[in-house]
Structures are given as C-alpha cells and as structure tokens.
Amino acid sequence: MSRKLISFDWAIKKILRSKANFGILEGFLSELLFTDITILEVLESESNQELENSKSNRVDIKVTDSEKRILIIEIQYSRELDYLQRILFASSKVISEHLPKGAAYSEVSKVISINILYFDFGKGDDYIYHGTTHFIGLHNNSELQLSTEQKRLYKSEKIADIYPEYYLIEIRNFNDIAKDTLDEWIYFLKNEIVEEGFTAKGLKQAQETLDVLKMNEPERVAYELHQKELHHEASLYESTFVLGKLEGIDEGIEKGIEKGIEKGILLTAKNMKQLGIDINMIAQATGLPIAQLTDL
Predict the structure, then answer these.
(1) What pLDDT, in 10s, does the model give residues 254-275?
(2) Whole-prediction pTM value?
(3) Where in the chain are the domains?
C-alpha cells in the first residue's frame, strides 16, 4: 500500500530548498514545462523573506532549460480572493528584484509563475491552465511578431517568450485518473501519494524523501500543526461567503457579506484559540488585534 507523503506546500517550505533535494522540483518542472529543467539556485529575494507565511507558500528559483535559457520560476501555493492580482504583482516584483541596477530592459528575466491551487478558482472544467501574452491586430486579427533584430536581442522567437507565463493548476478539478507522467504529478499533489508504477521524473525521489514516517517527533508535531492551520484557513475562506450570503438575505447582499466576513473571522479565531494555537499566529492568520483575541 502506498504511504502518505508530506504535502507539497510544506515540502517547499522545509525540504525542497535544499540542493540535495533539487531533483524533486526539477522533475515536477520538467514534466510541466515539457523540457529538461536544471535548478541553478533558490533565490533568497526580498519577496521570499517578507513573512513566514509567504515563505511557506512561495519559492523563487533560477533554472536553465534544455535550450540553455536562464529562467526564473516562482511556485506559489495560497488561498486568496484576489489571486489573479497576487500572481501579477508577484511576477512583476520578481522581475524588478532581479534586474541589475543600470541594466538595459533587454536584460529583464523571463519569469514563469506556477500556481498550485487547492481551492475553487474561476469557472472552467480543466485542471491545468496556461497563460501567455500575445498582441493581436484589431483590424486583420494577425499576431505581432518580433523582427530579426529583436530576436537576436532577446534571444527569443516570439513575444510570448519574453513576457511572464502563468500556469494555474486547479487540483480539485483533477479526476484522479493519471493518463500521463504530468498527471502522475497532479495525482501526487492532490493525494500526497505516489502509486506503484508511476514513472514521472522526480516522483521516486519524492517518495523516498517526503515520507511522513521518516520525520522525527518535533518535525511531525510542527507538520501536524501546519496541517491544522490549513484546515482553519479553509474554514475561514468558506465561512466568509456562507455567513455573508445568509446575512445578505435580510440585510442586503453587500451589508450581509460584510457582517458575515466579520462573524466568520471571529468564529475561526475563537476555534483556533480553543485548539491552543499561538495567539500571535492567530493574529497573523485573521488580521485581528491581539487585544481583541485575548477577550475571546
């Protein structure tokens, strides 16, 4: 029977930043991008150092592909209403952080934003979405191309190769049927299990490295607390809408959602406090002041 493995978001925070474990991320990225990826370094950028929560949900890495192109890839795992703006801001920040002072704009790094979504997002029936930038003529519907000089300058064939790319992986939409090696990775991301017979790059090392049973006691306690926090985060996210809609029946949708959000946050904070979660951590998760949490 396949063993339960450490969740990918925890692995990103605690394990996959180590050079010894680069093979796991390299395998995932190679399968997703359909090219052989080699990690050069984990970028300890300003973005990666802002908050403990951000560090657990995001990692920026510098890689090279089979064509020897240097790319910056950011992997994010989070649950936010304004997620599309979040990934736009994050990719823009990565670009600005890694453009040397005084450098020409032609030195802007190619950024690929990979977003692993464990919550319902948008409307669609697929589980992997890929977004790129194209310029289309308003009159004849033709696509703008790079000139020969621009191709040499940018070392790219298409405009889309210069601008950021976005991958949205909607885990809940996956039907648990692995039709290819990329699906094997999605199966692992959803179920935290590597089934017998899976051959995708990096999964064998993931199976060996991310075994929960190999954790020592302090690591296991920290991991279980992290999982508990994720459950509360999911409850907070859903209660925001459910309570808001109920209030909206009698008091108007806008006012009801506002009151529902407040009630949902207070209820979640109270539950977290009863479970013994550190009050500073509750304040960070809910945005409530410590003085208010003390009175709950």
Answers:
(1) 665 566 677 777 877 787 777 7
(2) 0.72
(3) 8-213, 215-294
